Amino acid sequence: MPRTTAKKDLSLKGLDLFQICAQKGSLQAAAKETGLTISTISHHLRNLEDHLGIELFNHARRPMVLTPKGHVFLRNIDEALFLIRKAKAEASAGTLAESSHLRIGTIEDFDSDIIPEIAVFLSQHMPGCDFVYQTESSHTIIELLRNRHLDLGITSTPHDHLRDLQDRPLLRDPFVVVMPRQSQASLADVVSGRSDLPFLKFSSNLFIARQIESQLRRLGFASKSSFECSNNQTLMSMVAAGAGWTITTPLLFARAKRFQSKLVMHQFPGKSFSRTLSIISTPDCSRSVLDLIDAKMRTLITQYAIAQQIGENPWLADRFQLIE
Asked: Given 2, 98, 122, 223, which is the most exposed site by the fewest CB atoms within 10 A?
């Protein structure tokens, strides 16, 4: 039944919270997401329903379920909220010192050297900004960006369509074979599964694992594996200990400094393949912020990864490179 109470003013905060509650399905999840109390969120939702004179949620159901009119309203405000956020971002473009909030997600590949420097750099250039940094897998970062829980992510570029997200290709990172330095087996025998050295691989739920598996399947390689791990450093430690071999990338190899004396990196035999790392952002992320992070990331990647790895492995020169 339509409400007969006096209408409250329509607020942008109320629209934001309605969108979040519709996505999350509960007040508790929305409170955790926003940092607000359940009673505050309920107050905003009541005001919104009072203003519209309709019920947006079926309040007798748990978890929260949109009414038919609620579904229609959500579909229409999704685009409106996107345009408002984009307008706010464009209005502040070029005024980095005035930026107030930035949420960044990165894969662990940059954790040891690059992201700490990025954090210091951004805090110096955006002194009034509150930052949130998250380290997640690539597919989690993409999902957080799609749900507008992050502003930008530095991650592997997925093969599927990014829909309304923006993609700035950053680095071409080729796949390489890494073996124990003391191994006597040949590269061809190891990769084809003809040696006793087992294949140690990334967890199958990761983008990088799916890309490697797809290429091995295309090439007809059938190396057996009894070990999966989502952490590159653990894989490198296992290989360094002589427990097996793996397929990784020069960027990831560059992070494994403590193990490199016990490792050998080889060019992948046969047809080469690579992954692309990108800065992926929501359309409402400020262009000036993207430009700043893009330029600094390129400098740091060159400093901490490309220069050293090409210096030690010249065959990487035309493969491991920034994307202009």
From this structure: 2
Q: Do residues 211 and 218 make contact, with C-beta atoms less than 8 angstroms apart? A: no
Q: How far apart are CA 263 and CA 235, in angstroms?
A: 11
Contact 209, 203 (CB under 8 A): yes
**Cα–Cα dist 321/240, whole Å:** 26
Beta carbons of 48 and 56 less than 8 angstroms apart: yes
**Percent of the residues in the chain that have a pLDDT greater than 70, as a whole number:** 91
Sequence-ordered list of residues with C-beta below 8 angstroms from that of 140, at least 6 positions apart, any chain: 105
Residue whose entry in the numeric block shows the structure tokens 């035309």: 318
CA distance to 184, 203, 217, per residue, from 210 (Å):
29, 9, 10
Q: Which two tokens stand for residue 58?
A: 């079926």
d(CA 76, CA 66): 14
Positions of the chain with pLDDT under 70: 1-9, 85-99, 222-224
- Of 238, 131, 122, 137, the residue nearest 180 (C-alpha): 238
| pTM, rounded to two decimals | 0.71
Q: What are the C-alpha distances in Å from 316 to residues 46, 184, 225, 278, 305?
A: 60, 23, 27, 20, 12
Residues facing 283 on adjacent strands: none
